[in-house]
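Would you be willing to look carefully at the protein I have copied below?

:::
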Amino acid sequence: MLAVDKMLSRLKRKQKILEKRKKIALGLTKTPGFEELDLSRMPDLLALIKTNRWSLHARAAEFNLNIAKRRSHLTQRSDLQSFTGQSDTYLAISRAALMIYATGNSITAAECTNIVKGVNIHRASVYKYLKDAVAAGIYEETTNDAGVKCYNLSASASEEQFENLLELIFNPITFDFVQAMHRIYGAARVGLNKDFRRDTSMAQYFLDLVEDKEDEKVV
């Protein structure tokens, strides 16, 4: 009986871990093709990721470090990189502004604030950033049809953004990172294909039994 209790305890612990991973997977379920993604029922995919985890960690770390290096004083930065790289606050606001501008809209303080409030950056910081960006020649100040003050990228800053994009795309480190992620997403798509999906694993079978037992106790 002691052995059974120990096994049930381990299964319950695994069940909690899988529930946590199930919630993590929800981040991708709004993407077409991944609506039914549930890591708690995809042991093969989790095993693949776990087997390759350190290689994936290395690729992700290398990718993020490479981006940081291109913004550091060790490289010949553009005026745009020098300006936005002054602080984490300026970098975050510049990314928010680019998100807005890339959708065909002019940059406004209100829209930027709405995006960066999630990383605890307040309106006063956004106003200071926009004022400094105009002074640095990064943005040009104008007004929209409603008469609200807004901003557009200057011609030189726009060109520098494009060069940054090219550097990102044609970088072997970016390619290696994307390829590593692509293999995982490809495996996930195969796992979600009902024609290839295997029967429930024995571990999942017992986990379901444990869950059923817990539900019976509640009733």
Notes: The chain has a mean pLDDT of 84. The chain has two domains: 1-64+173-219, 85-170. Strands lie at 139-143, 149-153.
